[in-house]
Design brief:
The chain is an alpha/beta fold and 482 residues long. Helix content is 36%, strand content 16%. Helix 5 packs across helix 9 and helix 7 packs antiparallel against helix 8. The longest helix is centred in the N-terminal third of the chain and has 23 residues. The protein starts with 6 loop residues before the first strand and ends in an 8-residue tail after the last helix. The structure holds flavin-adenine dinucleotide.
Length: 482
């Protein structure tokens, strides 16, 4: 047996941000915990590697961390002590347009409004009340199944955000600049913009941009999971990497098994423990579109036509609301968009540790149909050239990962789906089933981004799943899984 002990109180399968957070929560409760990772390195969607040339460090998956700085769980951990430093670009986001200008989402709502022409006042009237109410609402968003501390504020917030981005854009704004900004933000939902709750993703990301920012992790995303792992170690938790789990029989004895994996893998590993009805529910769980991911080593900074894009860590490329909506609709219905909506990050403008002096990296992806084998490099680079002519001339080397290949890198990325399953209305809150973290098999829990509050690096799925497991254990409801 590759583990130092034959028995632990808890075993966690998968060392993504949620697996690490689950293990930390268990260890904080004074329980012994072993975290098992299939790959040789820990971290899941938060690893960094030299994907192009020596000396150029790239974030293999996630790169920009609004949800991490917002996460109350991460905020209370001593991660700075273990080497994690957030780097805030001057502005969270830029959205260039074909007239050569760019909408800049600034930390200040008022400054952002100045970018939006006649919609400036409307933007303040939309975001202002949401941001003022945010401190009262955060806990409901972080833990949607706790009774809201401020039920009326939560209801008002729900009524504003639980709609489609296209309905919000139509009702809240008159001009293209504000609508385009909203389209880019809502595009993170990986849903058609006509679908509920695409507006919720856009508004929550916008609120966090104004309240907490969209930082990078200095030195790359790996520093986040390394800090989590060091904290886990300080609490006595153990980690065994390089150990893919395909059956519960591989595990040491444990009263709790927390799985940082998606429903499809849970069925393979533990399906025999579940009644047929629960298995069917997991089989019906839906995965969304995938992504085609690119990284570049560059000879210089990206030559944006709108120079102010250089102040932003993230740049949304796709032009108008209508164009981004068409691109996301195409993908949803199984087509590759010719002019895809591209999410781009330019970390080395703000963090010089990731590339040789004077050189840069860029990170980008676009949505594609689930399981796609199509290399979108040409379409993505055309979108960048459209707003930054001369970009291609700076490329020293590129790395391309098509959607179908991502699952080989991390088995949670089913068909290249980076969200752990579609987050449409049905699977937005009640994911993957009404039981959320729990399964009918005592002692077996799901703790990945396929549980609430869903995708992103914030650790809350892992933390909340571990709290549910610890509660069951203290009430003697969590035995007999091993
Ligand atoms: C290209 C890309 C870009 C992204 N960009 C961002 C971003 O900028 N900001 C952001 O917040 N989020 C982003 N995300 C999403 C973010 O990475 C995920 O939401 C987050 O990592 C989910 O964490 P998790 O712990 O649930 O799962 P994961 O991070 O996927 O970790 C799961 C871990 O479990 C391991 N595992 C799986 N099966 C087994 C098994 N059978 N045995 C042992 N180990 C196993 C995997 O190897 C992996 O290490 C991005 C994701 C991708 C892929």
């Amino acid at each position: 047996m590759p583990f130092s002990r034959q028995e632990y109180e808890a075993v966690v399968i998968g060392s993504g941000p949620n697996g690490l957070s689950a293990a930390i929560t268990i260890a904080e409760a004074g329980r012994s915990v072993l975290l098992i990772e299939g790959q040789e390195t820990i971290g899941g969607g938060a690893r960094s590697a030299e994907l192009t040339l020596p000396g150029f460090l790239h974030d293999v998956c996630s790169s920009v961390y609004p949800m991490a700085v917002w996460s109350p769980f991460f905020r209370r951990l001593p991660l700075a002590q273990y080497g994690l430093e957030w780097v805030h670009p001057a502005a969270p986001l830029a959205h260039p347009l074909d007239d050569g200008s760019a909408v800049i989402l600034e930390r200040s709502v008022e400054q952002t409004a100045q970018n939006l022409g006649n919609d400036g006042g409307r933007y303040i009237r939309l975001m202002g009340p949401l941001i003022s109410a945010w401190p009262k609402l955060e806990s409901s968003v972080q833990n949607p199944f706790s009774f809201p501390a401020h039920p009326f504020a939560a209801m008002r917030f729900g009524l504003t955000v639980l709609r489609s981005a296209s309905s919000l854009a139509r009702h809240a704004f008159r001009g293209e600049r504000a609508r385009a900004l909203l389209a880019g933000l809502a595009g993170h939902a990986v849903l058609p913009l006509e679908r509920v709750p695409s507006a919720a993703f856009g508004l929550v990301l916008g609120i966090i941009a104004h309240t907490q920012g969209w930082p990078f992790a200095r030195g790359g995303s790996q520093t986040i999971v390394n800090a989590l792992a060091r904290h886990l170690g300080s609490l006595g938790g153990e980690i065994a990497a390089g150990t893919p789990i395909s059956s519960l029989e591989q595990l040491p004895r444990a009263r709790l098994i927390l799985c940082d994996i998606t429903p499809r893998q849970l069925l393979t590993i533990a399906g025999s423990q579940f009644p047929a009805a629960f298995r069917r529910k997991l089989e019906r769980y839906r995965y969304g579109p995938g992504v085609c991911k690119l990284d570049w080593a560059l000879d210089g900074p990206i030559p944006w036509k709108a120079a102010e894009c250089g102040r932003a860590g993230t740049v949304h490329l796709g032009g108008t609301f209508a164009e981004i909506a068409a691109s996301e609709r195409d993908v949803w219905y199984g087509r590759h968009s010719e002019r895809p909506f591209v999410l781009l990050a330019q970390p080395t403008l703000f963090d010089g540790t990731r590339a040789p002096a004077g050189k840069h990296t860029a990170w980008a992806y676009c949505h594609v149909p689930n399981g796609s084998n199509v290399d979108m490099a040409d379409a993505i680079e055309k979108q960048i050239e459209r707003f930054a002519p001369g970009f291609r001339g700076l490329i020293l080397k590129r790395s391309v990962r098509v959607a179908a290949s991502l699952e080989g890198y991390n088995p949670n990325l089913i068909g290249g789906d980076i969200g752990g399953g579609t987050a449409d209305l049905e699977q937005f809150l009640l994911r993957p089933t009404r039981r959320l973290y729990r399964t009918p098999a005592k002692g077996i829990y799901l703790c990945s981004s396929s549980t609430p509050p869903g995708p992103g690096v914030h650790g809350l799925c892992g933390h909340l799943a571990a709290r549910a497991a610890l509660k069951d254990l203290s009430q003697k409801r969590g035995f007999g899984a091993s």
